[in-house]
Write a structure and sequence with these properties.
The structure holds two protein chains of two kinds. By secondary structure, chain A is α+β, with helices and mostly antiparallel strands. Chain A contains three helices and five strands. Chain B contains ten helices and nine strands. The chains are: A alpha+beta, B alpha/beta. Chains A and B meet through helix 2 and strand 5 of A and helix 6 and helix 8 of B. Chain A: Consists of a catalytic RNA component and at least 4-5 protein subunits. Chain A: Belongs to the eukaryotic/archaeal RNase P protein component 2 family.
Chain lengths: 114, 252
């Protein structure tokens, strides 16, 4: 029997001088992953941008559990988005989007998010 | 948690290497505020060797207002091993953390075996002068020095330079782990947008072979233990490891 595909949802806080569009944001994330792990590595992440709030500068990404460390490392290497200096910080990680929103709603960041 | 009588221990996170210009108060405050906001508890600022005690106390006060524990640090760039010994004699008791930039093999070897040295750092781009090999690790294990890895070059470098740096770091980390040399992961940055959360620093450690637990230790337990040990040594009652002066009387 096939093993269940486990996912992780990451809440991100964008720290940037500019206001990148949704496309610029996800391009930067894919760019960082492909730079570090190549296209083969990036293909294993199953990365999807679930939500992107330009006003609050927050985003929610979905990735597979087995590549969580890889995605974390890649996100940490992002220093610019759309030629503007930027940093991405993970504020929370959860197994379901509902739990993630609950964590964010409570204003808590998990120990993982630290 | 309360019901089963287990208390969750919160990690104390430390970044022992901030390169801020202490003369630029506004810039320094911005960086330190960001450090506090990112969840660090302990922060080490690289200071010039001639920094006076009043300046150190002023910085300590600024950090305390932000909820940070300030650690004074000096980065030594000696011309030779004799010069290193002289600088250590002069500066060891002035700073809580002493890091030596090892520009030559002789300096690297001397720094590794000298128990007054806390951290060893190596040139980031000149790979032929990264002297952290097995002999260096053995000496460092005999002393107390740890290997410091700054994450800044991993953020600013791209392409072959970063590939090469990661390759060297992976080798050095493997050697350090096999000889039990502590590894400290620091930021080494001067601007707030280059700062990363402790867990993100640990994630960057994953790139050069640190697993999740060791990565977190490299930004929490290891640097905190180092600072604690040095503070004890610098305190008034310290005699030798494990021996403290409790009471002093004339007739004793």
């Amino acid at each position: 029997m096939l093993k269940r595909f486990k996912r992780r949802y990451l809440a991100l806080q964008l720290d940037s001088e500019g206001l990148p569009s949704r496309k610029e944001f996800i391009d930067a994330v894919w760019g960082a992953i492909t730079k570090l792990y190549g296209e083969q590595g990036a293909s294993q992440t199953s990365l999807v941008l679930i939500d992107y709030d330009l006003e609050k500068k927050t985003a929610i990404l979905r990735t597979s559990l087995i590549t969580l460390d890889l995605v974390r490392a890649s996100l940490a290497t992002i220093t610019s988005i759309a030629s503007k200096e930027a940093a991405l910080h993970i504020t929370a990680v959860s197994g379901t989007i509902k739990a993630l929103r609950k964590k964010l709603g409570n204003g808590k960041s998990t120990a993982q998010g630290n | 948690m309360q019901g089963c009588g287990v208390v969750a221990m919160k990690r104390i996170f430390a970044d022992l290497h901030l390169r801020v210009n202490v003369k630029d108060s506004a810039g320094m405050l911005r960086v330190l505020s960001k450090v506090a906001a990112l969840g660090y508890d302990l922060v080490g600022v690289s200071l010039a060797a001639e920094t006076c005690a009043e300046e150190v106390e002023r910085l300590r006060g600024v950090c305390a207002e932000l909820g940070l524990d300030f650690v004074s640090r000096v980065d030594l760039r000696p011309r030779g091993s004799a010069n290193l010994i002289r600088q250590l004699r002069r500066l060891r008791r002035k700073f809580e953390v002493v890091c030596v930039s090892c520009e030559s093999k002789a300096i690297a070897r001397q720094a590794a075996k000298d128990r007054r040295v806390d951290l060893l750092s190596f040139p980031l781009l000149d790979f032929r002068r990264r002297f952290f090999d097995r002999a260096e690790a053995e000496l460092a294990h005999g002393g107390v020095a740890g290997l410091e890895v700054d994450v800044k070059p991993l953020l600013v470098l791209e392409g072959p330079a970063r590939v090469r740096l990661l390759s060297y770091l992976r080798g050095e980390v493997a050697i350090a782990k096999s000889f039990g040399v502590p590894i400290v992961v620091s930021s080494g940055v001067s601007r707030e947008l280059m700062l990363r959360k402790p867990r993100e620093m640990a994630a960057l450690g994953f790139l050069f072979g640190l697993d999740e637990v060791y990565g977190l230790d490299a930004v929490s337990r290891i640097p905190v233990t180092l600072v604690k040990r040095n503070r004890e040594k610098l305190s008034d009652g310290f005699v030798a490891p494990g021996i403290r002066l409790v009471k002093e009387e004339r007739d004793c």
